[in-house]
Amino acid sequence: MSDNxxxxxxxxxxxxxxxxxxxxxDKIYLTQPLGGGATRDYTWAQVLDExxxxxxxxxxxxxxxxxxxxxxxxxxxQWIMTDVAIWMAGYVSVPLYPTLAAETVRQILTHSExxxxxxxxxxxxxxxxxxxxxxLPCIAHDLAPESARKAxxxxxxxxxxxxxxxxxxxxxxxELATLIYTxxxxxxxxxxxxxxxxxxxxxxxxxxRLELPKTPRMLSYLPLAHVAERICIEFLSFSLxxxxxxxxxxxxxxxxxxxxxxxxFFSVPRLWVKFQQGVNAKMPAEKLNLLLRIPILSGIVKKxxxxxxxxxxxxxxxxxxxxxxxxxxxxxxxxxxxxxxGYGMTENGAISHATFPGVLRPGTVGKPYPGVDAxxxxxxxxxxxxxxxxxxxxxxxxxxxxxxxxxxxxLRTGDKGALDAEGNLKITGRVKDLFKTSKGxxxxxxxxxxxxxxxxxxxACAVVGANLGxxxxxxxxxxxxxxxxxxxxxxxxxxxxxxMNGINEKLDPHEQLDHIIVVKSAWTxxxxxxxxxxxxxxxxxxDAYGTHFExxxxxxxxxxxx
Length: 562
What we know:
- By secondary structure, the chain is α/β, with parallel strands linked by helices.
- It is 36% helix and 21% strand.
- It is built from 20 helices and 26 strands.
- The strands form 7 sheets. Strands 11-12-13-14-15 form a 5-stranded mixed sheet.
- β3, α3 (77-88) and β4 form a beta-alpha-beta unit.
């Protein structure tokens, strides 16, 4: 395996922070919304100063070197400063998703042996609070819920009275930097161990393929506890002297993105779909298609739409964390915003494959990053890879680590794939997601879901069918779909049936959907149907709806309302 990406200790996050704080101390690094349109800016010098003071405080508590320090918060300036402070103090950061159930909070804090937990900006703190083990010391961020700020020492109070560290500490390139607990689409989360090398090499490798300006503007809104946001926002901002804006809430997201006007923007398929549906709600698809065919008007329309989305300055748009429907990629390409698609997982620091900016290859995730080797197992069809970005292993789980790696050192991704004529990788589904119908035929649900979700009334979907005669498509309606169902339910049912028939025409007989089932309840992070990056939890779908599958299969109508 060739590691052909130049890499040195100077690429590590602490060294980068020290460099920018010295060479451009007054440049704004982080912009934090405070509510009501107010914001607070932090320069590189201020970030280093506050992080150093918090690191000195952590060291004063007497934890052994390498102790695990947890952080439970939505994205914020103090999230990144906390990560830095933990590293400067000689410890290991353990970020938790801000939407976890108390039981999962307890499991992660206990399993990681966290010595302390930072509590930050949270929407459901009282729900999560019982997950904090009794006696575990905590520190509250400035944007933490009021009850947390009253219960625990506060960030600003600590940094105001604490002197900074006497010298700027360095961490070894192969030291453990963080435990990233998987989002748990299949069972309890596992603590993925990453060193400073694995994550820093990953961000350096990504830059070989990305064409970004110096000091790019970025918007951070997907959970920083997720590896993709960690690489695309935190580590790339260190590498490029980026300016990171944070989103305040879902309600203010449009204003947040318009304020940031990001030059690098990463999003997951479900949100790219929602942006598209928002455009189509204001301008029907037929009218938009017509306008885009008129040379003079086309440029005006594209600029207006991208400006309204806050993406008129975007130079690199990235999709990932789940497959991007090819039709969606083509739609954005017509708008003048080509989306490069990345493929990776927590275990390889989100770095495996990616398409090239501006080179549309719908249905594939491109070729391996420089320094990454990839292969497809001839027996199972599983994608396997290796590279300097691969995890050190699962924390305290040697048997699971052994299962994740082949005997000759390749990471088993759990995804099935194939190569096109150009050598681009096509994801055909999860090895474990394949199901067999009662006819003995295997079905890969992911490609069917990519087509199904492209109807404007559908926000999310899942294809199921183990031991059934034919697969079923469960769909969750979008906001526009809900409005249409309330007014013209029969018309929407006809549209969905026609959509299903169009998909079936392109599928093999054993893959064709028998019915579309419109579910009542929204699939959200809060109710556990999706991960924090909006990937469907198939085991949750099976548990919630499985008892109805056979009855739905016997129904005569193509569209069934739960």
